[in-house]
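Minimal example, chain plus shikimate-3-phosphate.
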Amino acid sequence: MQLRAAPHGALGGRIRVPGDKSISHRSLMLAGLAVGESRVSGLLEGEDVIATARAMRALGCAVEREGDGEWTVHGRGTAGMAEPADVLDMGNAGTGARLLMGILAGHAFTTTITGDASLRSRPMGRIREPLERMGAMFMARRGDRLPLALRGSDTLLPIDYESPVASAQVKSAVMLAGLHAAGRTTVTEPLPSRDHTERMLTAMGASIESEPLADGRLRVSVTGQQELHPQRFVVPGDPSSAAFPLAAAVLRAKTPVTIEGISVNPLRIGLVTTLREMGASITFANERTVAGEPVADLVVEAAELRGIEVPAARVPSMVDEYPVLSVVAAFAGGETIMRGLAELRVKETDRLAVMADGLARCGVDVRIEGDDLIVRGGAATRKATIDAKLDHRIAMSFLVLGGLGREPVTVSGAEAIDTSFPGFGTLMNGLGADITKAVSS
Ligand code: S3P
């Protein structure tokens, strides 16, 4: 499917974006590990999370949709999963696939996991390595790619793992495996990554300790073999989805754009910090705590933006937001230098290369130096067609660019958007954007 975004004028209005993807995956998985019935409200019903729901069913959990975003999960206990009868296809869902491996590591049966072409190209060695140390066994394609077979163990060893990357997927997979181990499993990460697993497990009664170290690292530990209590999970709006209307609004909201009920977890809102440094007007209204997550309405008004240098230390708190930040940077004054983006190379696509290439096609002055992305603002953009390459955030970023620029942008493979943001076009158009289905040539 092709979508075409034509340049739009002023934006304004109030919207709600779909539920947070990270918290949605975790709600279904953690509910499956509890003993008894959990309820989830506001679940993101995008393809990624549906793949996780299917996987939890394949492991024997009763997972039911009761209404819009309303789900129930009947958990079987941390050690209670059943051997799936078939291969688990996780589609495009990296979080789904990797966190599931943490659960499966503690079960003494074999599971085969696959995914779409994008997921099959992503490295799984970062999960395999710590889980093998704990006692799980893997057989994978060259380069630790999917499909892979994983044989878990019901006698996992607790480990003290020094993760080479600040990745919440790695941290969470080890913690989920740690729920099965006899003793305390510890993960230290070079910089703190999103902490939803820690918050949710704590709410479920697990003993979790989180200790920021003096050198900036974070050490988290979990005690294994405890019972998890079922919960009423309430999923807030996804800051990584809010990023797209936010990016358009910081430049074009002539009347305020309000994005309601967004998670403003400090480990997720690096984009807000960055846009404010660039001169954006973003305020938090109606701040509250919902099911353990800080939540607020984002109120945005247009401002002139200037280029800045974004430090590498900010990557974990906005890792998924660089594609759309690079679009905003194209319309700011001066240069924006985004440092230390190596992790972007192993996302749904090599986002560093794909963004630089797509921005250049649209007429933006852009370059990559090592792992840094440098965008010169003041772009007079031109008409282009961009292939989303199975990457939802690439698709949405270029549709935002088409709206802000001088010429329309067409995105092919735009169905990828449904992995995280069903209804994206309609919602953007409600604010004043002009996104339509394009006839393929
Ligand atoms: C996620 C963590 C991030 C992020 C992904 C979701 C999660 O990946 O890019 O979209 O839910 O834990 P890494 O932890 O690998 O950086």
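The pocket of shikimate-3-phosphate is lined by residues 22, 95, 167-169, 172, 193-194, 319-320, 343 (CB under 6 Å). The radius of gyration is 21 Å.
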